[in-house]
Write a structure and sequence with these properties.
By secondary structure, the chain is of the alpha+beta class. It is built from 3 helices and 3 strands; from the N terminus they run βααβαβ. The radius of gyration is 25 Å and the shape is elongated. The structure holds L-tyrosinamide (TYC).
Amino acid sequence: MGSYTDNQSQPGDVATETSRPKLKRPPMYKVIILNDDYTPMDFVVMILERFFAMNSEKATRIMLQVHTRGAGVCGIFSRDIAETKVAQVENYSRQHDHPLKCTMEVA
Ligand code: TYC
């Protein structure tokens, strides 16, 4: 082992690292709308404008993507906000007798 008169590493020394507090950022969540055979396209576009602040071009693009691929991301939010968006979309759709479904998953 080396002498302790300097701070050079020596064969046999053990590397140590000062421990850092194990803080992790909370996960973010994707809000995803799902396709179905019944909800009118115009209604989905309106939902995306109303609850996700999309302009009509973007809302139309996302709606068509969901229509053709089955699902699409509306946005990425903290857990609380994502839960609220899912509830808003499903409640509003149910009130208008549409089966539109929405879900969330860790981004
Ligand atoms: N597939 C629906 C129709 O043909 C339109 C639609 C698009 C429904 C997106 C839901 O998330 C959705 N009327």
